[in-house]
Amino acid sequence: MKVALVYDRVNKWGGAERLLLALHEIFPHAPLYTSVYSPKKAPWADVFRIKTSFLQKFPFSTHHELYAPLMPLAFESFNFNKYDLVISVTSEAAKGIITTPQTKHICYMLTPTRYLWSGYKDYFKNEWLRLFALPLVAYLRFWDKAAAQRPDKIIAISEEVRSRIKRYYKRDSKVIYPPLTLGSKYQVASIMNEKIHNTKYIIPNTGFYLIVSRLVPYKRIDIAIKAFNALGLTLKIVGTGSESNKLKRMAKSNIEFLGNLTDEELVKYYKKCVALVFPGKEDFGLTVLEAQSFGKPVIAYEAGGVRETVAKGKTGMFFYPQTEKALTEGIKKFQKSKFDPAECKQQAKKFAIKNFKKRFLQEVENLN
Q1: Is 305 strand, coil or helix?
Q2: Rounded to whole angstroms, how far apart are CA atoms 294 and 299?
Q3: What are phi and psi of 101, to 5 degrees?
Q4: Of 293, 84, 277, 260, nearest to 182 (Cα)?
Q5: pLDDT score, position 130
Q6: What is the per-residue pLDDT across 101-154, written as a single tens digit (0 to 9) for each?
Q7: 206 in the same domain as 286
Q8: Does the residue 185 lie in any domain?
């Protein structure tokens, strides 16, 4: 069977990228089609044969936001006639590829396009921007709904995403949770371009809380910074993003920004932290499982996919609503609670990569 993978853009590192590497384990000869590719920002992708769209030749191509109106055309321009199966992994336009009846298309959906649907109000808070973008949003919503009808089968990464697919696209889907892969043989220390060695940071033995996240608005890292500013507890933040400078200006001296870590370094921080803090609403939330796999509990905002991955009161606790005050009270309550590391590890085992591979291959076999 000739298989191809498709992904929205290859210019960052996160949970979706770990998922692509898991699919590469199942389909090692499948090339990866994408709109734009940045080898510098995505060194993890050098295991793939990358095939880019015409947008790759455009100026500032890695700033994909500039070319949102052209993303539909970029993915519709690919030809998949020589493949038996195409698997799109997407939270945006990759689901809109066009295939013939002889080529089957499975869409593994991370979420319906966030800035058009569930996150529209967050992305278009500015009234003038919202008014100016109205015609473009209307066009993209029309195309997005049509594109979502093209795959032969849609698989959702969580029940949260499954409900969104039904709400926005009027399609049924099955849930296959992404696999826990941190520390596996193909995702080790050298995977990140920005390498951090043992000599750069001295990892304390205990006493610090941890955030592992891209620093972008919807992750709501600002809530955690305000809470830890008030509490004076030690917080270490792994990751980079568009809000890095803003968040650093907000933070007091008890909060440290570590940037991007290698997997080897990240594991050490997971092992020695008190707990993972998860203030955003996520479609799934892979870092929540990573923390539990090392026996660490989670303090999370009670919304989204995290409700499917944390055993409330056993492997973590939730706060609500999504405010600094609620998180502050949640941390105080956490400090008076006890969690069994063995239960955390057992919860994470449910999301082992072998389970993912088995279920995904079953869906491929049942496609015909």
Answers
A1: coil
A2: 15
A3: -60, -25
A4: 293
A5: 83
A6: 999 999 999 999 999 998 888 888 888 888 888 999 999 999 999 999 999 999
A7: yes
A8: no
